[in-house]
Amino acid sequence: MKIYTRTGDDGTTGLLGPDRVSKSDPRMDCTGTLDELNASLGLACAVATSTKLPDQLRLIQNELFVVGARLACVDPSASKYFPMLDKAVIARLESEIDAADAMLAPLKNFILPGGTEVAARLHLSRTICRRAERVLVAFSKHHPLDGHALAYLNRLSDWLFTMARLANHEARVADIPWQK
User: Fold this and answer.
1) Which of 100, 112, 122, 135 could be bridged to 164 by S-S, CB 3.0 to 4.6 A?
2) What CATH number is given for 24-172 in this structure?
3) What CA–CA distances, in Å, run from 165 to 40, 75, 144, 172?
């Protein structure tokens, strides 16, 4: 099987269902931004040195595929073939944030993205996550979203921020304070 099909040469792409949509369709902006977020998490995972972080990132990458698959279901009947995120996933992120936050010094001012390489990559992923959240919010104004995709992305950006701080902490690298 060849990787190229030539079917997208006219500026359209296929989704889960019989129809094709323009590659500039807002749904494609959402799925593309989720794909970009997923790729950035892969970069962070590639340099992660802690024992837990790679497994946590791989789990999140799989969860992002769930969000993307459900977005790609133009035909509502096709969505029954894909899992849906539930509130337990969000609760897990919150629990991991709380556990990491307990090990960190309280924030007294804004910090700049950076420090260790893995922290910088997690901060970059956080900004992509925020963009994914924004495009999904805009999309949801005209197309209902099922599941907890918006809450998940909101919590995920908090998780990424906290894990970036934790990565710096574990490497004994201080967060970089914003110089006003």
Assistant:
1) 122
2) 1.20.1200.10
3) 17, 41, 34, 10
